[in-house]
Amino acid sequence: MGNKSQLYMLESCPFCWKVRGLVEYLNIPYDAISINPRKAKKLLPSAPEWTKTPVWVDEDTSVIVDSTPIMIHIDEKYNQGNLWNSDDIQRRDEWKEWVDTRLSKATVPILYGSLLSAFTTTLRVSKMEKFGFFSRRIYAWAGFIVMWGFIARKRVKSDGRKPKKLWHDLLDEFTQAFDNKPFFGGEKPDMIDFLAYGYVSSISPFSQFKHIEEHQPGISWFQRMKNQSKS
After folding, report:
1. 157 and 101 both lie in a single domain
2. Which of 67, 86, 141, 205 lies 20 to 30 Å (CA to CA) from residue 117?
3. Do the domain assignments include residue 231?
4. Cα separation of 17 and 74, whole Å?
């Protein structure tokens, strides 16, 4: 037996959730390697040029970085590109851009958009990730100030909508593009579905996921995605 592919990841990283959803759907054997966020520059095989997660290492030791390129690579290598191939390239590319800009930027406001949300999120993240003993406590009690005060609050103020309203508007826009089909891809999900599914999934470990659950078309699509398995 050859070596398994490896996914270098953080448990709370929305970009990692994207890749995880795809490889699990395609039933690809791989080793998930959770790293200490503070040691990415030392632990990632792509460092020092690339120090973000996820990083995918193929069985042949080829290194691919950045979540969407990783997913396109995996689909091409293990699935003949069936999820990425499209009869409407313009529609696919426009929605790829929409998901990887609009939807991706909405994850921080919903998780860190208020002081209480930021605090509960950082506490949860500190338990999910492989921080060292002291780093875990520093992140848990100081990280929420950074995430809320310097990042999330600015995004919420710039957008002008409460995080729940923002997500409901985005899910309205996304599900309305299905043209009354169960998925963006039609009767079966395509790559756009999996890109969006990863961002939504990344919120699921946190209490703020209740806001997603209150959007009926969005949560119905999410449950359909969870129930998918490659035939």
Report:
1. yes
2. 67
3. no
4. 14
The verdict on 75 and 132 lying in the same domain is no
The pLDDT value given to residue 134 = 66
Task: Work out the pLDDT band at 229, boundaries 50, 70, 90.
Answer: low
Domain at 73, CATH number: 3.40.30.10
Q: Are residues 41 and 107 in the same domain?
A: no
For all residues of the chain together, what is the average pLDDT?
Answer: 91
Residue for token digits 């950082």? 122
DSSP bridge partners of 55: 8, 65
Following DSSP, what letter does each residue of 106-130 receive, concatenated?
A: THHHHHHSSHHHHHHHHHHHHHHS-
Q: CATH no. for residue 117?
A: 1.20.1050.10
pLDDT of residue 185: 97
Tokens representing residue 223 in the block: 């449950």
* Residue 164 CB partners (closer than 8 Å, separation 6+): 110, 211, 214
- CA–CA distance from 48 to each of 1, 12, 19, 51 (Å)? 31, 22, 22, 6
Domain that holds residue 63: 5-79
170 versus 122: the higher-pLDDT residue is 170
**Rounded (5°) CA angle 155-55-222:** 60
Token readout for 231 is: 């035939």
Last residue of a domain, one of 45, 79, 113: 79
